[in-house]
Amino acid sequence: MGKILDAEFRNGLYKSLVEAGYDKNEAKIIVGKKYYGELKADLIEKVKVMADSIEKDVFEELPIETITEGLSELKKLKTIVG
Prior knowledge:
With 82 residues, the chain is an all-alpha fold.
């Protein structure tokens, strides 16, 4: 899991970019794109694990809520990053 998934890290990165001279909107887009990509990859991996578990009749605890929340977050981010 990438550091960008951590809210504190994202906030720090945003502040650092603004301090380095980036426009606030530009910094928001940069952080948003990185977060979007990592969150998407993380969700894809979780779905693969779920599918594999079902296929093998293992039926481990599946993080449905985590995936639902992640998908909701991706939808919000899509409006920011385009």
